Amino acid sequence: MSLLLTLSGVNTFYDRLHVLKGASLHVNEGEIVALLGANGAGKTTTLRTVCGLLRPASGQVSFAGQSIVGRSPEALVRLGITQVPEGRQIFGPLSVQDNLLLGAYGRGRRAQRTEVPGDLARVFELFPVLAERRHERGGSLSGGQQQMLAMGRALMARPRLLLLDEPCLGLAPLVARQIMETIVALRAQGTTILLVEQNARAALRIADRGYVMETGKVVLEGTSEELVRNKDVRRAYLGKDYDEV
Amino acid sequence: MPHRRRELLGFIVAGAVIVALPLATRNPYLLNVAVFIGLHSMIAIGLGLLLGFAGQISLGHAAFYGLGAYATGILTVHYHINPWLALVIGAAVTAVVAFLVGRPTLRLHGHYLAMATLGFGIIVRILFNEGGEFTGGPSGLPGIPHLALGPLVLRSDLHMYSLIWPLVLVQVVLSRHLLRSRLGRALRAIHDSEIAARSCAIDTGRHKLMIFVLSAIYASVAGSLFAHSISFVNPNPFSFMVSVELVVMVIVGGAATLWGPVIGAAVLTIVHQIIVQLGGLYEPIKDLDVVIFGLILVLMLLYQPQGLARLRLPRLGRLTGEGDDG
If contacts are CB pairs under 8 Å, which of residues 169-198 in chain B contact chain A? Predict the structure, then answer.
């Protein structure tokens, strides 16, 4: 397996607030990697740093062997990193189909005619409910359907690395499970996935490896089995409350 | 599709009104007002795209209007260039100026463009005023030739009406196509959520800049037509207040709609004329225009924030295809 994404000693600030304090992690091509941790640990900040919305003050971020520090989010999408932002951020007033087509925006004019129709069909195959409601407004979909739309939109960019920020937040357990299954299916098609998730048990069930973050640092790394068995992880993130999920 | 039919209906009604008005009346005053509604519509359509789809406000569009007017004025009076060519050169110069104003400000988030154009408009007006012989200073630049189509000199208001209103129609058709295109989808996405737009690889700054430059070109062309129509320019029609009135036109009519800017231009131009007429009867009314425009703006934002173009019979509102911005 080859390295796809590496962060080493990354420091990121919101104005003067030091959020990422020397975070280091890596993602191999074809992996699902889960990023776990409590609120405020720096998980979302890590994703935003990777996808270019935040610029690290110091440290290295490299993708497929080249440094990507300072590149704009637009440029990174073209390079193959697409984020599904927290809270989904679909375009409410636009139709489902327009939302999806916008996902392919960065792929240039020619691709719009040649490849995009096929990709659109594949997304509709993956999420049949989106095909049914393709002419309806994105904002009229249910929470789960909006999450599917956000993921479908990201897939339209044909990402090599998909960043998912809390894809199951606020979804009914059954819908959340469906989303997780889709993530596994995407990996099977060759997409590498970095997943931020509060629900550690659900995330580790599908992930190959995971990192645990605390106050801006990576404090633990391991395969999913190791993390599930780890005493600290069990106590902090896999309490009995999660059993029924 | 009901939406498509409604859109077509809009064009048919507009076309019919444009053809019918000069048939119904040859009253020179009414035709003159109609010409000005047309000129204001040309500017407002660009501003509507900027406000409604790029989410930015320009408080300096009267200056772009003025740049067009002065560019054709100076080129034809001092350098005896063909008026049509002068119009095109004016638009090109304005486009470059708008690019230079917009480029640094539109990369920033927030309403920096409003501030930059506010300052820009004031500076441009000072230049018109202090330009000496070149711009004619405060007393203006007379002797600007009329436009001509072959042997036909476009001298009367009817001529200008017949030139300007088809252009307005063309602009609306262009806007419609623009918004249905890939670029239009991107603009609507930016308007909805900038972060999500960027995560779709949409270069938001570049798109806003494109729309801003386009709107400046529209204003410049309107300015050139204005100058050739009355064959005289002075700095007065290009003041800061006019920039504000143009923005009010867009908001009153409805920024994110096809016909809103035209409707707003018509309403505000007519209200302005009523104030001028009443001011002729009783002088102090003239000074009330700022108050009246302010009142209209506040009332619109309170009761019909999407603009007059979105005013519908209440029962029909929910049933029609609201998803497409019409």
Answer: 182, 185-186, 188-189, 192-193, 195-198
